[in-house]
Amino acid sequence: MKIHHVGIAVRSVDEAAARFGVLLGLAKGQRYVLPEFGVCALFIPVGDSNLELLEPLSHASTVSKFIEKKGEGIHHICFEVDDIEAALDDFRSQGARLIDETPRPGAGGHLVAFVHPKDTHGVLVELKQG
Ligand code: CO
């Protein structure tokens, strides 16, 4: 397992990408518009991992609500797993509440699922099948 990305809620992916580019010398990566998640996501490669900048597509987006409540900042951590169904079963059997009982296609069509932050020490966890 590895950390595939750290998701960061921002008001503007372009502004945030420019900022991280200047501060850390990072180049922009792949951009995805994901209406089913209510976001535009821009991946910025950092070594073997990535930053995922998340800009809400509308006020109805959970990322928009996150920014209203907490401001911009770290939104979730994504672990890449070989078998997402098995990983979800592990979380379930240990009593963790799942936001997604079944995986759904995320950026690039990879299967993803979210685990409730109340059961992971306040951190929203995304699982992604590699
Ligand atoms: Co993510």
Q: Give the overall shape.
A: globular
Total number of beta strands: 8
Counting H and I runs of at least 4 residues, what is the number of helices? Answer: 3
The amount of helix comes to 10-25%
The CATH class: Alpha Beta
Low-confidence stretches: none
Question: What fold name goes in the CATH topology slot?
Answer: 2,3-Dihydroxybiphenyl 1,2-Dioxygenase, domain 1
For the CA atoms, what is the radius of gyration?
Answer: 14 Å
Query: Secondary-structure element order, as H and E?
Result: EHEEEHEHEEE
Ligand set = cobalt (II) ion
Q: How would you name the CATH homologous superfamily?
A: 2,3-Dihydroxybiphenyl 1,2-Dioxygenase, domain 1
Task: Explain this structure.
- This protein has a single domain, classed as 2,3-Dihydroxybiphenyl 1,2-Dioxygenase, domain 1, CATH 3.10.180.10.
- The chain has helices at 13-24, 62-70, 84-93; strands spanning 2-9, 31-34, 39-46, 49-56, 73-81, 104-105, 111-115, 125-129.
- The protein starts with a strand and ends with a strand.
- The protein contains three helices and eight strands; from the N terminus they run βαβββαβαβββ.
- With 130 residues, it is of the alpha+beta class.
- Strands 2-3-4-1-5-8-7-6 form an eight-stranded mixed sheet.
- The protein is 24% helix and 38% strand.
- The relative contact order is 0.20.
